[in-house]
Amino acid sequence: MSARSEILHRVRAALDGVTGHQGTLPPVAREYRRTGEHAPGSPGAIDLLVDRLEDYKAHVHRVETDEAVTALVGEVLASHFATLDAETGDAARSVVVPAGLATHWVDGLPSGTTVLTDSREAPMTALELDEVDAVVTAARVAIADTGTIVLDGAEDQGRRAITLVPDVHVCVVRTDQVVDSVPEGVAILAEHPDRPQTWISGPSATSDIELSRVEGVHGPRTLHVIIVQA
Fold it and tell me: Of 5, 51, 126, 167, which alpha carbon lies 20 to 30 A from 33's?
């Protein structure tokens, strides 16, 4: 019996007794763990998320107030721009933000920085995004167990393209958005199943057969995560 025939035989055996193509199948047991050890937004969940992100070589910052986000975004990007200026001698810098981002988060950017707004109604092209130095977004949920931040295309997160093309991504996460486990994160994302999702676990990285790590191949080379107390 071929492998194909064996698979089909097992499928038919599993469906034996089911009436018609649209028959009701037996219920699927879902006995996997639905929640994690740490409550959403708890210090334990935050510490676990930070540990995972840092292990992935992301830069993690913690602040207590929303106002502090403004100053930190400015400091983080000012430092990055200074490095670029030293390498290229070009002081003209730009940042792209989604249309629904809190505008005051980019009020502390270095003088002369151009802030570009991207939206579905007026999207920037890939070539235009390639000329942008950084992107700043919010997030939908962060999963501590896997060190994963998920964006779902809401107005404060924007289109997938703006977080995949620029070399630096600054992502702001509220503590009340941090959950312990993947099932908890998926349950939140299921509230808007029609939205496109981007799952981010550290900066973009890959490796060849000899395990030589290369960053920035299919996304930002540098990821800054700002965790703000909700």
Answer: 51
Cβ–Cβ under 8 Å, residues 110 and 78: yes
Question: Which residue, among 59, 80, 99, 79, has the nearest Cα to 227 in the 3D structure?
Answer: 59
Q: What is the pLDDT of residues 136-151, one digit of tens each?
A: 999 999 999 999 999 9
Residue 12 lies inside a defined structural domain of this protein: no
Domain with 181, as residue range(s), is 36-228
Residue type, 194: D
| CATH assignment of the domain containing 103 | 3.40.50.10420
This prediction has a pTM of 0.83
93 close to 72: Cβ distance less than 8 angstroms: no
- Torsion, CA 73, CA 75, CA 80, CA 86, rounded to 10: 150
> Which among 26, 15, 92, 49 is positioned nearest to 182, based on CA atoms?
49
Helix (H) or strand (E) holding 13: helix 3-14
Name the pairing type of β-strands 148-151 and 198-200.
antiparallel
Question: How many structural domains comprise the chain?
Answer: 1
Residue 11 lies inside a defined structural domain of this protein: no
Tokens of 197: 């999702």
Does some domain include residue 183? Answer: yes
pLDDT in tens, 54-87: 999 999 999 999 999 999 999 999 999 998 877 7
Residue 103: how many other CB atoms lie within 10 Å? 11
